[in-house]
Design brief:
The complex is a heterodimer of chains A (551) and B (340). By secondary structure, chain A is of the alpha+beta class. Helices cover 30% and strands 21% of the residues of chain A. Classes of the chains: A alpha+beta (551), B mainly alpha (340). Chains A and B meet through α1, β8, β10, α8 and α13 of A and α3, α4, α6, α7 and α8 of B.
Chain lengths: 551, 340
């Protein structure tokens, strides 16, 4: 009798599940919008700080962008135009050294204080004085500014005199490090101490942006609510609240998106098929500025052949880019022409925006043969080059995309007679290997944007240590390339910059120290009830612009 | 030996245990050539001044034994270092995450202990009958099911297909936590009289507490059943019955008390183990507790956080064992603490 009751309960449960599935399939109408005035985003990783002066990570910059404003900004998916924000307009002197910003009137911080030019000077000087002790992000402003750079002309005019002309200066201004804080508020809460973080500002942000911090529960969520004094106003459709949730498990984020708890969710490439094709969920790839590369150590202690540019060129022909995109990245990536990602200014200076190298093993073999690296070493009946020297492919353990690419590349290297091995290590171990030894040959790495200027991509990869670059310690150095990089960096003339970057690329690509693998697609699947969403690789998440409704 | 002497002696044993744990964790985390300063400072984008500051802060330029000395000195001053992943002191992180795990553990035990003991008694008393078969099946299922699978299935059924329970978290999305008094949301909500938060926190405990409690329930059930079966065959039980004692008195007053010792052992150790962090349950249900913190710290190479966590877990195990030993004496007067 009791067993019968139990059986009935179990059957009823399964039938309910099955019927709910059938019912869902039959329903044509859209589901009810959950939390209609709140935008909820599920992501991984927690913010480290909410102080813009010490923020150098994506998770922290997201809430900061909604709480603070900058002088200029980007809008929608436009990465090529600077739009007014706290500055209404600006001019630059003929020598590109002096920038004058006219500021917006009648702007208040969320605590009711007025925004003035004093706050602009205070904010920029604060970054340079504090020196971003936790993150070191002050380097971005320090490239062309010091504490004497900013001058208050009047309450609503501020002038910035650069320490040296810098073509990317305006592109620094929309970044979080140039967000404007309230001088009185900061001074009342710890002020500025050189070389020390401001603990209060880290957890108690207050700015002129559309939202204010409601609460931040570490490892759980950041909740923002409307700033009633926001200068942009609240007419039209804007969310009342924004919730940024942190969930480490992909399955949890997938279910949150499916059941409508999440409006947006970070889903790894490998799991995208779990939400692709789902009703009410939009999966749309955008071009991000995130690039994947293979760094080649030109001064590798175990592999002197890598110092030969012809070998590095051959390696660039030996990588199967398109297969990597399909297998390692599930198709969510694109070819990369050079250091500058697609969408960024001056992208076309790189071989007219077309990849210079394509997968061509015959060409790779020809180059190696011509360079005199014949297959003259026999191992188990197979002939290899470089006297059997093994080319080691390092990647950080746990990174499945890099692992797949390494396996693919190894097979191709074998085909052209290069012995190779794959080594996975923890990130701190790889950093130790890369920066304190020459005991590495190649390493899979990635790079994301600091700000929207090619100098942030060209210089770290193509520049040498002589100009304080060579970020990945590859040992590459070409004096002409260095000179051209500096010429592009310090000119505000777009034609001069374009010519300089093209010249640098044309030389560098003949003896590259990186294989430019792919440009990753950015995908944050979202519920179709979210309206007005657009992705900008420089500045993500304009929550103020979004709203929830069915069209 | 008096009870208090026994407790003090056992607590003093914590000192060598902690020293041992720190030596092992410190050596393991420092012996591999690595560049933690650069990793914490942002990897390839790290600025030299930040790397230098972190190197100095962690004494990375000193020999390893000097580094260990500094670490030990910090521990004595209740400083477990800084979590670079969270950019705050490890002590602050543990203070936030431990109560979350404690709350989850208590509620999972509230499910596991009564159901496990009652199930075990029923199973033993009604041996080879339908109820015995059912409870044994529950025990086997509970013990064999991978906890992550159970968690994912419960989420899928009760938060997606039949959405009657929350998917994850400690509170409803965007809800403010109660003022932190104990860090246990249920208790804090009661103290502050916040009924909405109380309801939400209880509601959010159901799935993770059940998931976590299920395996422990199975363990307790199996242990209680086998102990009860053993005890029920004893002469004094037969004597009790012959004396005309009611079956209820025989079972609950005479048999159960004697059968509880092994159950208390596994319960105590399970409690300690769960307090040490239920990594999978916490990660899947997005429960901001110790297990999730430890997992993130390990994956993020946050050595200070890992070491802080390990020390706390060692303390928890020692204390849990101590409590189990004391409970032996409470349950069975024949047991003398300290063997005296």
């Amino acid at each position: 009798m009791k067993a019968g009751v139990l059986a009935i309960i179990i059957c009823a449960m399964f039938m309910t599940i099955a019927l709910s599935g059938c019912t869902q399939q039959q329903e044509e109408e859209k589901p009810e919008i959950k939390n209609p005035t709140t935008i909820v985003r599920y992501d991984i990783g927690d913010a480290k700080t909410l102080d813009p002066a010490d923020c150098y990570d994506t998770a922290s910059s997201e809430p900061i962008f909604s709480i603070y404003d900058t002088l200029v900004t980007y809008k929608g998916n436009d990465t090529l135009t600077f739009y007014p924000c706290l500055a209404t307009d600006w001019t630059v002197s003929n020598d590109s050294l002096t920038w004058t910003f006219n500021l917006r009137n009648n702007v208040k911080f969320s605590n009711g204080n007025d925004f003035t030019a004093e706050d602009v000077k205070y904010s920029l000087d604060r970054v340079l004085t504090m020196g971003a002790p936790e993150s070191g992000v002050d380097w971005i402003l320090g490239q062309c500014m010091d504490t004497n750079s900013t001058t208050v002309i009047d309450d609503y005019t501020v002038q910035i005199k650069l320490t040296q002309s810098y073509g990317g200066f305006l592109a620094l201004m929309p970044y979080t490090v140039a967000a404007i804080v309230d001088k009185d508020y900061v001074e009342a809460n710890g002020g500025v101490v050189a070389g020390e973080e401001n603990v209060w500002m880290k957890e108690h942000p207050m700015g002129t942006g559309p939202y204010i911090l409601d609460h931040w529960t570490r490892a759980t969520e950041i909740v923002l609510t409307r700033n009633p004094t926001y200068w942009g106003g609240w007419a039209g459709n804007h969310p009342e609240r924004v919730v940024i949730k942190y969930a480490d498990e992909a399955a949890t984020r997938i279910l949150a998106l499916k059941n409508g708890d999440a409006d947006f969710a970070y889903i790894p490439y490998a799991n995208l098929e779990d939400v692709s094709g789902e009703k009410n969920i939009v999966v749309h790839p955008f071009d991000s500025y995130d690039v994947a590369l293979l760094a080649i150590n030109t001064k590798a202690s175990n592999n002197q052949y890598l110092s030969d540019g012809r070998v590095r060129k051959a390696l660039s022909y030996a990588f199967d880019y398109n297969t990597a995109i399909e297998t390692a990245w599930n198709g969510y990536a694109a070819r990369l022409a050079g250091a500058i990602p697609k969408g960024m200014p001056y992208y076309d200076t790189q071989n007219n925006g077309q990849p210079y190298y394509n997968y061509d093993l015959a060409m790779a073999e020809q180059l190696l043969d011509d360079a005199g690296y014949a297959k003259d070493y026999e191992l188990d009946g197979t002939m290899y080059r470089f006297n059997g020297t093994t080319l080691r492919l390092f990647y950080n353990a746990g990174n499945s995309e890099r692992e797949t690419m390494a396996v693919m590349f190894r097979a191709a290297l074998d085909d052209i007679g290069i012995l190779s091995s794959i080594i996975a290590e923890g990130w701190p171990q790889l950093l130790h290997r890369m920066y304190t030894t020459d005991d590495w040959d190649t390493m899979f790495i990635g790079w994301g944007p600091d700000y929207n200027d090619p100098d942030d991509y060209i210089a770290p990869f193509m520049g040498s240590a002589d100009i304080s670059q060579d970020t990945y310690n590859t040992g590459y150095m070409n004096a002409t390339v260095d000179a051209k990089i500096l010429e592009g960096k310090y000119s505000a003339d777009t034609a001069v910059r374009a010519a300089a970057y093209k010249a640098a690329y044309d030389i560098y690509i003949q003896e590259p120290s990186f294989i430019f693998l792919v440009q990753r697609a950015y995908i944050r699947p979202w519920r179709d009830w979210v309206q007005n969403y657009s992705y900008n690789p420089v500045r993500e998440w304009y929550f103020y612009d979004y709203y929830k409704a069915y069209p | 030996m008096k009870t208090w002497e026994f407790i003090v002696r056992r607590l003093l044993l914590l000192i060598p245990v902690i020293i041992g744990v720190t030596i092992i964790t410190f050596t393991v985390s420092h012996v591999i050539p690595a560049d933690p300063a650069r990793a914490f400072a942002g990897g390839p984008k790290a600025q030299p001044d930040v790397i230098e500051r972190i190197t100095k802060e962690l004494h990375l330029n000193e020999p390893i034994w000097i580094q260990y000395f500094y670490y030990l000195n910090d521990i004595v001053h209740f400083n477990l270092g800084k979590s670079y992943l969270e950019s705050r002191p490890v002590v602050d992180s543990l203070a936030q995450y431990f109560p979350a795990t404690l709350e989850l553990t208590i509620f999972s035990m509230l499910i596991a202990i009564p159901l496990g003991i009652v199930g075990g008694i029923i199973s033993a008393v009604r041996r080879n009958k339908l109820s015995d078969h059912i409870t044994r099946i529950i025990a086997i299922v509970g013990y064999s099911l991978p906890i992550f699978w159970l968690a994912l299935m419960l989420q899928y059924v009760f938060a997606y297909q039949i959405p009657i329970l929350p998917l994850e978290g400690r509170l409803a999305i965007g809800m403010n936590a109660p003022s932190s008094i104990t860090g246990l949301y249920v208790i804090d909500s009661i103290i502050t009289g916040n009924l909405d938060t109380l309801a939400s926190s209880l509601y959010h405990l159901i799935l993770p507490a059940f998931t976590l409690g299920f395996a422990t329930l199975a363990l307790i059930l199996r242990m209680t059943r086998s102990s009860m079966l053993e005890v029920m065959g004893m002469d004094y039980i037969r004597t009790g019955r012959a004396k005309g004692l009611s079956e209820r008195t025989v079972i609950y007053k005479h048999a159960l008390r004697n059968a509880l010792i092994p159950t208390v052992t596994v319960t105590g150790l399970s409690f300690g183990s769960l307090l040490g962090g239920a990594v999978l349950t916490e990660t899947i249900f997005n429960w901001p507790g110790m297990g999730r913190f430890a997992a993130r710290a390990v994956l993020g190479f946050d050595f200070s956080a890992v070491m802080g966590f390990t020390i706390l877990v060692a303390i928890i195990y020692v204390v849990a064992n101590l409590i189990v030993d004391i409970l032996y004496a409470v349950i069975d007067p024949r047991v003398k603490l300290g063997g005296g």
